[in-house]
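Hey, I'm writing a tutorial for new members on how sequence and structure tokens pair up, and I'd like a real worked example in the thread rather than a made-up one. If someone can provide the structure for the chain below, I'll link this post from the tutorial.
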Amino acid sequence: RVPNVLDFEAELVLSGLDLPRPVNYGLARIVPGAGTPIDPAKRPFVVVDPRAGHGPGIGGFKPDSEIGAAMKAGHPCYFVGFLPDPVPGQTVEDVMRAEAAFVRKVGELHPGNGKPVVIGNCQAGWQVLMTAAVWPELFGPIILAGAPVSYWAGDNPMRYGGGLTGGSWLTALTSDIGAGRFDGAWLVQNFEHLDPANTLWKKQYHLYANIDTEADRYLGFEKYWGGYVFLNDVEMQYIVDNLFIGNKLATAGLMTSDGVRIDLRNLRSPVVVFCSYGDNITPPPQALGWITDLYRSDNELLGHNQTIAFATHQSIGHLGIFVSGAVGRKEHAKFTSNIDLIDLLPAGLFELSVQDKAPDMAHAEIVPGDYLMTVHQRTLDDVRAIVAPNPDEVAASDRRFAAAAHVSQVNLALYRRYLQPWVRRAVTPQLAEAMRVWHPLRVGYEMWSDRNLLAPVIARQAESVRATRKPVGADNPWWSWQEACSDAITRSLQASSQSRDEAEEKAFEMIYSHPLMQALAGQADPAVPLRPHP
């Protein structure tokens, strides 16, 4: 059973298990707490949590969160979470249909209040976009928080992993070893490999260096970070092949089983994209690249009657986009309180900026709260400056990724033809369970659980230390030496990971830029467009 870190009381409204095509998702109504009046005339908010390896609840992890901001503004609020185990045979399209049913249900519960506002975090963001592209009539404004949509864009190290491992055959192998289920712990391990300095040192050092104040925060976050969920093999394979490696979402290359093209130009709701330059999982180019992929000119965007607004943060990390209390009190609070203004914006491209309210600001007395949100009209050239400052390099990069996608298809076909039957015969339910239990990330938690024979001894020693604890002063020379050593370890790990990332990038470019690889992948003619405009 995976812990749920939702900090609000909730009651189930609709279970995905009861739908015609059952899924492990559910719609819950957030019960307002004492002193939190809800205006029944205001439009409802629906927060959809990401199913990317962790358990549910991160959208309402603390009072200053997306859910908290919506309820403070008086909006009825709903939450879409999930169970740890998928329904056998469940697909990405099944989840899309469930999300459409959830949004339809919320709209029925609040008739005449305006279409529901839907917030999609990370993985949930691109899935919400896919759903809204097929059922656009159900959705009000959509807010995407740290959601990757254009997977070939940007410069983050995760882009190269698929090509350097030969493509998605490894995803199929991992699912087969799990007896048809993909263990989300592997996704979390990929995230941890991005920043070894934080994983191996900074996170733990910050805890013990501030042990008097950090224990509760640390344990609360680890409850989320260490709660792993599963995906079906068909779900994970679809995601890796079509999104991560194939990059088909941003170019309208996906189709539903009944022949409907998933084209983001079908959206009829204002879309707010919130991303950060400090995010090493979904940098701004990956969050915004779909706009320049789909629209060649500002007139084309206007012709599709599309309203898109974006906001960028300079430093917050990926999880901080939907977890940080500072972001919840500032950006999410202003997006929420101004959602009706956003809904009234005309077709076009806009940038939202949230700034501190200064005492000498003009008309400061009519600005509620401590922050002011301003809206600036932008053009596609402004987005291109973020996504693709050098068009020539982007074309060369796309050619490399297209070659990697072709190699992935070949290797996956070879694996399925020659190895998969043997692997599936060899894997028993007992072996799959052993692989789950002995995953390196789970072992790390289990080693120091209450079942450890040393746990009672450590607990008694901890109580003794607490009773006689005397924190040292900041001017203590040993403390200064400790801080200096920590900084040195951090810098060393950061330098090592940066060298690793640069080496992986150069290896990817060298392999997939080679003329022979380009020819084998059918990319030898540079005049042939890699991604024809849909």
